[in-house]
Amino acid sequence: VPPEKAHFAVRGAMYELQKFVDKGLTKEQFEETRKFVVNYSKLWAQTLDRRLGYKMDSEFYGMNDDYISRIEKELKTLKVEDVNKAVRKHISAKNVKVAIVTGDAKTVSEALLSNAPSPITYQSPVSEKILEEDKVISSLPLGINPARTRIVPVQQLFENESPGMMIEKKDDEVKN
């Protein structure tokens, strides 16, 4: 997203994450996701090398079935309630690490830390329902810890793990 919409985008992501934790998946969403994972997982083993790799991993971990076959078998027994329970247990919107790559890290960082409202504007008309939800999102408290927020040059991105960092990129550092 452009830097001027980053604040709203982070809030929107946190809003959707919290909604996912609170409400979980519907039965229909679960079934669609299960179908997708079962079908997509078969693509993971398209080549002989990959099938052999999964077979070796399966044997190493003492699995009776190879991993790819096991995915479908296990997913058939899984229930939406099990997934939603696991989501509530293991996922939280309260302790999240975010990295943002931008050419204007100082401005984006200041906006996020200010916790000021971040209304969004659209170039095309949108429904009243979306606008109402956007009002909630635009003032959602993020609770970002300034002491754990840093701006670092893009070259340092993979040098060490730095939670809560803001990455500043220069236009000439990005290759297409």
Tell me what the structure shows.
It is a single chain. This protein has 176 residues and is mostly helical. The chain contains 7 helices and 3 strands, in the order H-H-H-H-H-E-H-H-E-E. It has a 3-stranded parallel beta sheet with strand order 1-3-2, with helices on one face. Helix 1 packs across helix 6 and helix 2 runs antiparallel to helix 4. The longest helix has 21 residues. It is extended. It starts with a helix and ends in an 8-residue tail after the last strand.
| Terminal CA distance | 17 Å
Strand order of the largest sheet: 1-3-2
| Alpha plus pi helix count | 7
Order of helices and strands: HHHHHEHHEE
Assign the structural class, choosing from mainly alpha, mainly beta, alpha/beta, alpha+beta, or little secondary structure: mainly alpha
Largest sheet: 3 strands, parallel
Helical coverage, percent range: 40-55%
Q: Total strand count, please?
A: 3
Low-confidence stretches: 171-176
Average pLDDT reading: 88
Strand content: 5-15%
Shape: extended
Radius of gyration, taken over Cα atoms and rounded to an integer in Å: 21 Å
Multimer state = single chain
